[in-house]
């Protein structure tokens, strides 16, 4: 993890760092190569004018994962919920995974937009919401693995009650979701209306994946049904000239 972080920090000058293992070499070259190709050629070059912002998203992810690994190795327990969330949100990887897609197929993202406070706040709140939704579904497995989880972290505040801790986590999710929605519907927000809507769409996908189980890791039947609806079910013409998949609409 230290080697990977150092490589991403150097980015174009990564040869100065070198690779400590073949695994690190494969991972870094996949990140660096795909980012460079996506941002420097074809129609995507119009959408993302600076590949360095994507590199920063990967760096946040790598640093967060390294911090979580150190917590597990040393048995460190965050002293506060705030300490946990500052690491857990970037380590979740939402920015690197979901937002890279927006650079390629979403609304045009200028340097001014991606550096704006509105953009950063929307990214933060959708990250908090989805990470904590994940925590609610994975705390048992992560406890067995010796990992930190918001539910396990908050339980001692409530006399060890897991259910009370889960209620507190849900209240944080609700507050972050409200703030995200406020930014999504607000006029004058940095970027375009379609960009604001995309952040809300990302949250909805996260809610779908984690509302009942860990749909990302378990490939739940509901996740598979939604994927099939998007890919295989024919679009239907609705009154008013709207096109959509009825089954997909019901599930999302």
TrEMBL record:
Presence of keyword Repeat: no
Pfam families per the UniProt record, alphabetical: Terpene_synth_C
Keyword Lyase: yes
Cofactor(s) this protein cannot do without: Mg(2+)
GO molecular function: magnesium ion binding; terpene synthase activity
Domain Terpene synthase metal-binding, residue spans: 2-178
InterPro entries: Isoprenoid_synthase_dom_sf (IPR008949), Terpene_synthase-like (IPR050148), Terpene_synthase_metal-bd (IPR005630)
UniProt keyword terms in alphabetical order: Lyase, Magnesium, Metal-binding
GO biological process: diterpenoid biosynthetic process
Database matches in PANTHER family: ENT-COPALYL DIPHOSPHATE SYNTHASE, CHLOROPLASTIC (PTHR31739), ENT-SANDARACOPIMARA-8(14),15-DIENE SYNTHASE, CHLOROPLASTIC (PTHR31739:SF17)
Record's protein name: Terpene synthase metal-binding domain-containing protein
Lineage of the organism: Eukaryota, Viridiplantae, Streptophyta, Embryophyta, Tracheophyta
């Amino acid at each position: 993890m230290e080697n990977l972080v150092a490589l991403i920090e150097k980015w174009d000058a990564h040869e100065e760092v070198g690779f400590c293992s073949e695994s690190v070499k494969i991972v870094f070259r996949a990140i660096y190569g795909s980012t460079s190709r996506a941002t420097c050629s074809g129609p995507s070059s119009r959408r993302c004018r600076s590949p360095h912002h994507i590199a920063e998203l990967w760096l946040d992810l790598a640093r967060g994962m390294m911090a979580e690994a150190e917590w597990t190795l040393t048995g460190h327990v965050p002293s506060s919920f705030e300490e946990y969330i500052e690491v857990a949100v970037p380590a979740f990887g939402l920015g690197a995974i979901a937002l890279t897609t927006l650079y390629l197929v979403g609304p045009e993202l200028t340097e001014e937009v991606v550096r704006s406070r509105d953009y950063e706040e929307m990214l933060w709140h959708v990250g908090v919401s989805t990470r904590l939704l994940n925590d609610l579904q994975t705390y048992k497995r992560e406890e067995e693995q010796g990992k930190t989880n918001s539910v396990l972290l908050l339980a001692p505040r409530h006399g060890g009650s897991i259910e009370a801790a889960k209620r507190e986590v849900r209240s944080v999710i609700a507050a972050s979701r409200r703030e995200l929605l406020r930014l999504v519907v607000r006029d004058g927000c940095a970027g375009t209306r379609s960009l604001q809507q995309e952040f809300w769409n990302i949250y909805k996908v996260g809610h779908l994946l984690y509302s009942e189980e860990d749909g990302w890791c378990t490939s739940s039947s509901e996740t598979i049904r939604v994927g099939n609806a998007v890919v295989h079910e024919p679009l239907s013409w609705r009154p008013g000239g709207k096109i959509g998949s009825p089954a997909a609409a019901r599930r999302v």
